[in-house]
Amino acid sequence: MPMSGGPVVWDVPHPLNRRLAGRDEMLHEIGERLREHPVQALYGLSGIGKTQLAVTFAYRQARDYRVVYWVDASSGAILRGLRAFAADVGIELDDDLSAGHQAIRAFLAERDDYLLIFDRAPDASALEPWLPEDPAGHILITSTSPAWRRLGHPQRVPPLDETIGADYLKTRTGDARGGALVRRLGGLPLALEQAASYVEATGVDLERYLQLFDTAAVELLGTQPQAEDYDATVLVTLSLALDAIDSERHPLAATALRALSYLDAEQLPRRAMMHVLQAAPRAEQALNEIEVDLALGALAARSVVAVDPAHVSMHALVAEVTRRMQPEDPSWILGVQRGLRAALTGDAQLASSFASYAPLVGHVTVACGHAVRLGVADEDTVHLLDRMATHLQQRGFYEQARELFEQALTIDGVPRLVRAGVRLDHSALIDFIDSEEAVRLMHALLEEVGADPTGDLELDTLRADLQQNLALSLHSRGDSERARELIGRARRIHDRVVAEKDRPESKNVIDTVSNDGLIAWAVGDYEHALRAWNETLALAEAAAEPDPLLVARSLSNLGVLYENLERPGDSEDHHRRALELRRKHLPYDHPHVVISLTSLAGAYRAHGKAGNASSFAAALTLDEEAGALAEARGDRLLIGLAVNAQALDRWLSGDVAGALPLALRALEIRRAELSQGHPTLLQALVNLGRIQLANGDPDAAAACFAETLTQWRSSDLPSHHMQVALAHDGLGQVADARGDGREACREFRLALQAFIKLLGPESAAAARAREKVELHCGAGADVA
Questions:
Q1: By the 8 A CB rule, do 768 and 739 touch?
Q2: Residue 306: in which H helix or E strand, if any?
Q3: CB of 513 within 8 A of CB of 536?
């Protein structure tokens, strides 16, 4: 009973739940909305806490009403409850039901001082005869059905979020490790309270409860002790909700229920649901969309699924109970996998397919997990895991992708070519994480399938992809000559495959030509790289449906090359276009977004060196954004890239003191992550040397330049590589600062030779180097 001064008539048969968690905002919203709409319906899954919300609202707001009354509105109980209500508030009722309706409607239309709660109402039709069109007081309804708009305002009661649920468990049990359990229980308050009661009664901790749940979920949900403040266990509550579904009227509802029980709790697009139902056991040959909509509506009426115009979803605990209510039948999970495979349209590597793949990540993971659990994983399982892992890799979620690839590789009994394809995709991902391991994996696969084409188009395509991936991995480790050999072999195979199967603008061809250009650029063959990347841009843009990420990659590559060729205007234009495409189609912190930010900053630096000093500040802004994204990802190489770029921004703008610690950090990161002689490591050494020289420390600068050349000599990089040219130029400046004219002449001459081979005798870099040679070696000095 509420405190004195409250209602004259009070009938709420439940005590106040003083441990109700995470519902304050919703309780406030109920009060606000009742002032606008006198009928409010709280709907949601059984066990979600609708009744507890209504009880708490009644106790908290009791002083606002003269009558607070609770009516059990479940089937068969509503008339008895309303007769008791009428007797308590002074309404005379006889056996004439129509007159009873009229009398109660009149009371509710005239009095404005009541809160009438209808608990567990099945649907709007059960209450409609008793309610006036415009109630003067407030009516609160709890129901599993969302269909209340013709009577009042429906408000869905959501699960508790992880933080609130974990805090609740900590309060109840003293154990702060409840986050994982909250996720596993889907934030269902009844399940959390039952878990807390079990922990209190048995003395186990939440970690042990989670272990028990993972091995015997449904048994645990049905055990005593029953949760306090609730009148049934999770198993009983959800089983009753499932039993209430009208399967005879909507036979497809049972099929949808069972199929959804093998999927994730996240939203499933309705288009994918159609594919899954079509592939389900005993499904009709052609599904009627109207029947599907009605079946999902029947499930939504009990809140065992949630639906909107585009999606359907099932709570994880409903799925657990659904699977328990009937024997496990492998044909169901196999059908679900077939449906998901049909729903995955397009190439997983292309941005045009992201919209098809992204909403299905969790569903594929869960469905394939069930297939493995039941021992029926097959080629569909491997295909789904491989394609979804490839999609995740393209979006920059490398660890998630790795887990799915590795799960796919544990599945036996699939065709050799399918397994080889997964091994190739997996090794390409590993290259982002551990290039040594990637090279080992790819060499093993190449030895197994052979390097030479045999005329089998699928196998030859695999060989070409394998050799170009291996080429990239070897290139990243500094073995550029071997990389060029392998990429050449891949191009020759693809040229033949294209003639027999693919269009010239196919992704396979674009990849191979693009990688050919990348390796040529890395070894200083700018002319070859320029031809290759212009070709890839033309091919990517000529496709019937151009993929924005392929176009962006070509633009980005050309932007870097134009920067090297000292064409800052072209560089900025290409990098800006690439960044726009990547921001639009990739996650905000994707590595390619970070790279595009630093690349565009590089173009701004080039403008700054050409005399536009304000460009350095613009470059630093982009590089600091790139650094923040890289730090948030924890990606060491990306951090090194961004920090190195920030050092250049500060040095070129005159802030040598600010540049030095950044350059030192960039070198430290690259030393730890890259092999000796790697071009990117040489770049960090050269940049630090130039900054040390500007800082007035020629000895430290000379050490950096000398180490650059030592590492270069131990690699297979050509003499005209950019970092070699810059290292010789730096040593020339050190010699000049020490007054050693002969040594300065020699080093500047070596730098000039490298710039001429790299960029041509008429390039701006060659012209600057020639001026230094003439100054230190004499006018007309022989370049050789």
A1: no
A2: strand 306-307
A3: yes
103: tokens are 């009398």
118-143 core/surface letters (b: 16 or more CB in 10 A; e: else)? bbbbbbbebbeebbbeebebbbbbbb
pTM: 0.74
pLDDT digits (tens, 9 = 90+) for 662-707: 999 999 999 988 878 888 889 999 999 999 999 999 999 999 999 9
Beta-bridged to residue 42, according to DSSP, are: 142, 155
CB-CB neighbours of 253 under 10 Å: 26
CB 385 within 8 A of CB 408: yes
Measured in degrees and rounded to the nearest 5, phi and psi for residue 636 equal: -65, -45
Exposure pattern of 722-751 as b/e (b: 16+ CB <10 Å)? Answer: bbbbbbbbbbbbbbbeeeeeebbbbbbbbb
Calpha distance 605→212 (Å, rounded)? 59
How buried is residue 57: exposed, middle or buried, by Cβ count under 10 Å (0-12/13-18/19+)? buried
The DSSP letter of residue 174 is S
CA distance 471 to 479: 9
pLDDT one-digit tens code per residue, 140-179: 999 999 999 999 999 999 999 999 999 989 988 888 888 9
219 vs 87: CA distance, rounded Å = 44
- Name residues whose C-beta falls within 8 Å of residue 778's C-beta, 6 or more positions apart in sequence: none
Omega within 30 of 0 (cis) for the link into 679: no
**Angle, alpha carbons 268-274-280 (nearest 5°):** 100
Please give the single-letter amino acid code of residue 320. E
Contact call for residues 78 and 72 (beta carbons, < 8 A): yes
Give the span between the Cα atoms of 61 and 633, in whole angstroms.
Answer: 47
Quick: pLDDT tens for 97-145. Answer: 788 889 999 999 999 999 999 999 999 999 999 999 999 999 999 999 9
Identity of residue 173: T
Distance CA 386, CA 371 (A): 15
SS3 state at 268: strand
